[in-house]
Amino acid sequence: MTEAWVAELVERTLTEDLTGGPPLPGAPDLAVTYDVTSAATVPAGQLGTADLVARADGVVAGLPVAARVFTRLAPGATLTAGATDGDRVARGDVLLTVRGPVRALLAAERSALNIASRASGIATLTRRWVDAVEGTGAVVLDTRKTTPGLRPLEKYAVRCGGGSNKRMGLYDVAMVKDNHVAAAGSVAAAVAAVRERAPRVPVQVEVDVPAQAVEAVEAGADFLLCDNMPPAVLREVVALVAGRAELEATGGLSLHVARAVAETGVDYLSVGALTHSAPILDLALDLRAG
Fold first, then answer.
1. In this structure, are 118 and 20 located in the same domain?
2. Same-domain status, 16 and 57
3. pLDDT category, 252, cuts 50, 70, 90?
4. What region holds the Quinolinate phosphoribosyl transferase N-terminal domain (predicted)?
5. N or C end of the chain: which has fewer CB within 10 A?
């Protein structure tokens, strides 16, 4: 996540929540900064302290981004970290304490929670997968099945949970699938075309059966994406490839079978659910008077 991307995310997230009205004192340049409830119930200038609290056990991520949400509306706020991204936390743990103008803290509350809860949910689910395959040598990867506009945050959260990132987009790895093979005429032709056009980009070929794996390796693929192969077939592919390419299992994976798949000898488990199906981690903001 670049500094510019984080700043844009914070601005976009706050803009979703705050509509019209007078600006908050700490952020006169933010175009939409009106929280009607807080403006009506909280005296102007009142200071307070708020704790960002875990309501469930999990792994946290996105806390620095959540902190940026608070300081965007209350630049002079004091922040005290209670946890660091990647930490395992328990229900009731204080993750971040913020002191500043109450109106600003409450206006920032939902935006900060949405970011941290989403990222922490992904980190928590990722850690469950990483724990499930611990000791096998297999690495848990994410995919491009991310929430539109949130890919950097979600892939960062995967790393906080102990996983690794696959492709950030369509530009950093050439993924040759069946439609590409059909268009090019063969696996070998597709791989050769990528090598000619983008010689520095790693080439991965999607395969469904062991024979395709052999064909892809002989064509010069760097990685094989082994799609919907049961453990017995994966073991066969591992033996046939014999280290000539890295192997990534994907499709039909669940925590129930994760270890069995990892123990076949594949290098990676590619899990779209890390980002497209992770439930949020329940977090809350508790305001303390004074």
1. yes
2. yes
3. confident
4. 35-120
5. C
Do 159 and 106 share a structural domain?
no
From 154, 206, 248, 267, active-site residue? 206
pLDDT per position as a tens digit, 128-151: 999 999 999 999 999 999 999 999
Residues 247 and 168 in one domain: yes
Q: Considering the candidates 103, 110, 118, 166, report the single residue annotated as catalytic.
A: 110
Number of compact structural domains in the chain = 2
On whether the CB atoms of residues 81 and 94 are closer than 8 A, the answer is no
pLDDT of residue 2: 94
The domain in which residue 146 lies consists of 131-276
* Catalytic option among 55, 88, 177, 288: 177
Clarify whether 166 is annotated catalytic.
no
CATH code for position 250: 3.20.20.70
Look up 177 and say whether it is catalytic: yes
pLDDT in tens, 2-26: 999 999 999 999 988 886 655 656 6
| Catalytic member of 93, 154, 215, 227 | 227
Q: Is 99 a catalytic residue?
A: no
Catalytic entry in 145, 235, 244, 259: 145
Whether 206 sits among the annotated catalytic residues: the reply is yes
Task: Note the pLDDT of residue 118.
Answer: 98
